[in-house]
């Protein structure tokens, strides 16, 4: 992943520079860098896919849910693998979830805005600020919350901006830009849990801390490559998304919810897991 990103960065820099000054290398050489980066990316993803066929796929690792309350699932490995369209950054079995509280006084999740508003504030979304909990007794190996929570990307104009510019630039910058603020837990036996898009300034733990299942880690935010406040969760076989491979998971009492499926986690059950 690092090498592919480096090729893309050099390609973009040379393309921009070529419009400003005459370079001593030809256009075909510059295009060759971009083509090479594209081919390497496709080849890497295809090679990884061979290790995640149904026959080779390891059994899911059961952990506690990372949230409480009522949530809806997006980009689930229950529907397709890889769930996010790539094996990169250990995302093979990753899942996205959004808070969907119920009740007469519960805040509703804003609908996609076809015309207006172009962006929304994070506090308009019920996921924003929701507690993120440890899925097992573990050691914190990475914890960051210095990146800002940007405005939503849930209108046609902002989705176009995300797809045509922001996502590519974040991908070239690496996992810190893609995941935004993130927490990585070492669960033991080579298993690591990653939480992405953590809220700015919300960390309740730091690297080196020992945590127990159900313990508060941070809060849900909208940092990184994100359209709206939500939790991106995944298991992987190492602490570094650049080199780790994804591992299948199952949430105790929930399983692996499918796309569009709503599930509820009883807070008292999570509290008992932490006792």
Termini separation comes to 40 Å
Query: What percent strand?
Result: 15-25%
Q: H/E series, N to C?
A: HHEEEEEHHEEEEEEEEH
Mean pLDDT score: 90
Helix share bin: 25-40%
The overall strand count is 13
Structural class: alpha+beta
What is the overall silhouette? globular
List keywords for this structure.
275 residues, nine-stranded antiparallel beta sheet, 26% helix, 21% strand, globular, disordered C terminus
Task: Give the topology, please.
Layout: H1 2-18, H2 27-49, E1 61-63, E2 69-74, E3 95-99, E4 131-133, E5 138-143, H3 156-173, H4 175-179, E6 182-188, E7 191-196, E8 210-211, E9 216-219, E10 231-236, E11 246-247, E12 249-251, E13 262-265, H5 267-274
Parallel strand pairs: 1-12
Antiparallel strand pairs: 2-3, 2-13, 3-10, 4-9, 5-6, 5-8, 6-7, 7-10, 10-11
């Amino acid at each position: 992943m690092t090498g592919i990103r480096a090729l893309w960065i050099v390609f973009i820099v040379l393309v921009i520079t070529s419009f400003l000054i005459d370079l001593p290398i030809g256009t075909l050489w510059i295009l060759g860098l971009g083509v090479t980066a594209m081919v390497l990316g496709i080849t890497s993803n295809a090679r990884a896919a061979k290790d995640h066929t149904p026959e080779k796929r390891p059994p899911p690792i059961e952990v506690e849910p990372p949230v409480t309350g009522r949530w809806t699932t997006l980009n689930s490995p229950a529907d397709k693998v890889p769930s996010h369209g790539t094996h990169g950054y250990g995302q093979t079995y990753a899942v996205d979830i959004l808070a969907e509280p119920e009740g007469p006084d519960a805040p509703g999740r804003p609908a996609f805005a076809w015309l207006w508003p172009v962006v929304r504030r994070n506090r308009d979304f019920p996921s924003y600020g929701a507690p993120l909990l440890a899925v097992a007794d573990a050691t914190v190996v990475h914890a960051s919350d210095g990146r800002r929570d940007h405005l939503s990307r849930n209108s046609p104009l902002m989705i176009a901006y995300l797809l045509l510019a922001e996502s590519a630039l974040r991908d070239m910058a690496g996992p810190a830009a893609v995941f935004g603020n993130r927490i990585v837990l070492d669960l033991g036996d080579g298993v690591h849990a990653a939480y992405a898009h953590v809220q700015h300034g919300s960390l309740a733990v730091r690297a080196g801390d020992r945590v127990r299942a159900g313990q508060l880690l941070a809060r849900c935010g909208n940092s990184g490559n994100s359209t709206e406040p939500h939790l991106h969760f995944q298991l992987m076989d190492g602490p570094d998304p650049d080199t780790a491979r994804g591992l299948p998971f199952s949430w105790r009492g929930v399983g692996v919810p499918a796309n569009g499926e709503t599930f509820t986690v009883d807070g008292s059950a999570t509290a008992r897991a932490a006792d």
